[in-house]
Amino acid sequence: MYKGHWYDVMGKKRTDLRAMTLDFESLQLALDEAMSVLPDTRLIVMNENLNWGLISIEGTKRMLICKLSTPG
Fold first, then answer.
1. 59 close to 38: Cβ distance less than 8 angstroms
2. What is the CA radius of gyration of the chain?
3. DSSP strand E in 1-72: where?
4. Cβ–Cβ contacts within 10 Å for residue 49, how many?
5. Can you tell me the distance from the alpha carbon of 56 to that of 67, in angstroms, rounded to the nearest whole number?
6. Taking CA atoms, which of 21, 44, 54, 62 is between 20 and 30 Å from 10?
7. What does the DSSP 8-state code read for residue 30?
8. Using CA atoms, how far apart are residues 10 and 48, in angstroms rounded to an integer?
9. What is the greatest pairwise CA distance in the chain?
10. SS3 at position 37
């Protein structure tokens, strides 16, 4: 499972927007889903080794998508 957290273009976390939960097993599927449901998206960077990706939304927002760690 992955979670998408919102940031502005300067890297400050946006607390006015709710994080997005993406119930997928792979980073690529989670990124594809986020990019298909959000308007005007563009992939900025993807790091499969560390399980995170960064996308741009409408040129004014960023979403960091990362794998949720499992306890234990």
1. no
2. 12
3. 2-8, 20-22, 41-47, 52-57, 61-67
4. 6
5. 18
6. 21
7. H
8. 24
9. 38
10. helix
Q: How far apart are CA 1 and CA 41, in angstroms?
A: 21
Amino acid, res. 43: L
Cβ atoms of 1 and 66 within 8 Å: the answer is no
Cβ burial of 5 (10 Å; 0-12, 13-18, 19+) is middle
Per the listing, tokens 């994080």 go with: 19
Which parts of 1-72 fold into alpha helices (H)? Answer: 27-37
Under 8 Å between Cβ of 45 and 31: no
What does the pLDDT look like over 16-64, one tens digit per residue? 999 999 999 999 999 999 999 999 999 999 999 999 999 999 999 999 9
